[in-house]
Design goal:
With 134 residues, the chain is mostly beta strands. It contains two helices and eight strands. The strands form three sheets. A four-stranded mixed β-sheet has the order 2-1-6-5, with helices on one face. A two-stranded antiparallel ribbon has the order 3-4.
């Protein structure tokens, strides 16, 4: 597990699971899983990764930031597309290794770089993936 320079580790299991401090458990690559959910509809919009800097910027600015593994860089969602994700609530799971971000998408409301509202636009049906919006 990669140590974060921004977020200190939990003192113990109780602090991790029940404490008031955010002490994310980043994986060996320094990342935590992040799920973006539409704050009003409950629709799952996307899955991405966050490093410590992306998580801190998200908490500090109220705008979702992620870490792109393919570009190996920080990524402010919507910076170029206009589809900013305004954070209404941030939750972290019991082990602090996954984050759920409730967001209100801006712009046209889309989240997927392919052009769909959600990145989960395909359904497995009759032994094939079929494109279908929620």
């Amino acid at each position: 597990m990669t140590a974060s320079s921004i977020f200190p580790p939990a003192a113990d299991k109780t602090a991790l699971e029940r404490g008031a401090a955010i002490t994310p458990r980043f994986d060996a690559s320094g990342l935590v899983a992040a799920i973006a959910q539409h704050a009003d509809t409950g629709e799952i919009l996307m899955f991405a990764w966050m490093n410590d800097e992306a998580l801190k910027l998200t908490l500090d600015t109220g705008i979702a930031h992620y870490f792109s593994r393919s570009r190996n860089s920080l990524w402010k969602k919507g910076e170029t597309s206009g589809q900013l994700q305004v954070v209404t609530e941030l939750r972290i799971d019991c082990d602090q290794d996954a984050v759920l971000i409730k967001v209100r998408p801006q712009g046209d409301g889309g989240a997927c770089h392919v052009g769909f509202r959600s990145c989960f636009y395909r359904v497995w049906e009759n032994d094939a993936l079929v494109e279908r919006e929620a």
